[in-house]
Amino acid sequence: xxxQDTDIKVILLDxxxxxxxxLKFITSGRYIWSSFExxxxxxxxxxxxxxxxxxxxxxxxxFGIPIIRLSKFNPDSHAIALLDASAxxxxxxxxxxxxxxxxxxxxxxxxxKSALESLGFLCQPKVVPVLxxxxxxxxxxAKYYDRVEDWELLGQIGVSPGxxxxxxxxx
Length: 171
Prior knowledge:
alpha/beta, 17% strand
């Protein structure tokens, strides 16, 4: 496979300044994949963690979509609010940042045209997809959506998130 070539690099977004720089870069109308830095080679990518796999790298290379490391971000709460938990799970997607009329959304399958169309409808800002590993997406959905659902459920049954039972008896 040509991805074994260490000269092949993909764009890696692993902090907010790089994410904002990428957004500015693509909205300038001068988007040329080869001219954006920082990039990472396959051997460098594979060393980062267990979820940094060759298929993720190859998807990035093949479709020209940057890789985002969700574990390095705290997504904007306004962006998170654009999707409910069921949509996030269905599309394997997590809105990360809203900037003007654009929303960067991390997706496990950013080349899924049907999912992109649906996300474009659900998220009124224009969707800018970036690629995340399946583990990153699952972990982020658990962190930013499932915990909230759990707290809401606990509240409905009278238990606060701090494991204290709320007394509901009347005097």
